[in-house]
């Protein structure tokens, strides 16, 4: 950030301060989920849009990093993206969130287009998709735990 100030680069953290910029990023992550949950609850979107919940783990990871000040130097193992410390964690979340958001919009649109020919209601499709995703996530978690036990 000091390099940006010296060069006259007017990035958001330079203009408003690092702490305020971090809290704005946290707020934007929370609001993105909040808006989608609200739109699903009001019926604007079907439950297919709730596929974004599979990015929540990455969101919590990004929020945890944004909750703390930037370290003075690169932590071990993070030297590669050190100059962009906060961006890396936010991009990690945004890649999954954005993909699931677009997939949710696509599935919601297709399901609404063919709503009359679907054997079940759209919201049940979303619930089934989320259920399958949760089972898949559970299996992946168990596999990771067993793999960790084997290497330990």
Biggest sheet details: none
* Individual helix count: 6
Whole-angstrom Rg: 20 Å
* Structural class assignment: mainly alpha
Total strands: the figure is: 0
- The portion of residues assigned to helices is 55-70%
Give the averaged pLDDT, no decimals: 87
Percentage of β-strand residues:
under 5%
Our measurement of the CA-to-CA distance between the termini, rounded to an integer number of angstroms, reads 40 Å
Quaternary structure of the protein:
single chain
Low-confidence region ranges: none
Q: Tell me the number of structural domains.
A: 1
Task: Provide tags for this entry.
152 residues, flat
Give the structure's gist in a few sentences:
With 152 residues, this protein is mainly alpha-helical. The protein is built from six helices and no strands. Helix 3 runs antiparallel to helix 4.
Could you please describe the fold and organization of this structure?
The protein is an all-alpha fold. It has one domain. The protein contains 6 helices and no strands. The protein has helices at residues 2-7, 12-16, 18-41, 56-66, 85-113, 122-151. The chain is flat and about 60 Å long. The termini are far apart. The model has no long low-confidence stretch (mean pLDDT 87).
Q: What is the topological layout?
A:
Blueprint: H1 2-7, H2 12-16, H3 18-41, H4 56-66, H5 85-113, H6 122-151
Helix pairs in contact: 3-4, 4-5
């Amino acid at each position: 950030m000091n390099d940006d100030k010296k060069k006259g680069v007017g990035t958001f953290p330079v203009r408003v301060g690092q702490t305020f910029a971090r809290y704005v990023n946290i707020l934007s992550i929370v609001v993105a989920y909040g808006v989608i949950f609200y739109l699903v609850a009001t019926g604007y979107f079907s439950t297919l849009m709730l596929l974004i919940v599979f990015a929540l783990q990455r969101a919590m990871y990004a929020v945890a990093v944004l909750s703390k000040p930037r370290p003075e130097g690169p932590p071990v193992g993070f030297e590669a993206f050190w100059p962009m410390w906060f961006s890396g964690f936010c991009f990690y979340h945004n890649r999954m969130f954005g993909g699931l958001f677009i997939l949710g919009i696509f599935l919601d649109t297709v399901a609404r287009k063919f709503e009359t020919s679907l054997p079940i209601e759209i919201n049940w499709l979303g619930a089934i998709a989320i259920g399958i995703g949760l089972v898949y996530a559970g299996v992946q978690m168990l596999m990771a735990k067993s793999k960790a036990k084997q290497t330990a």
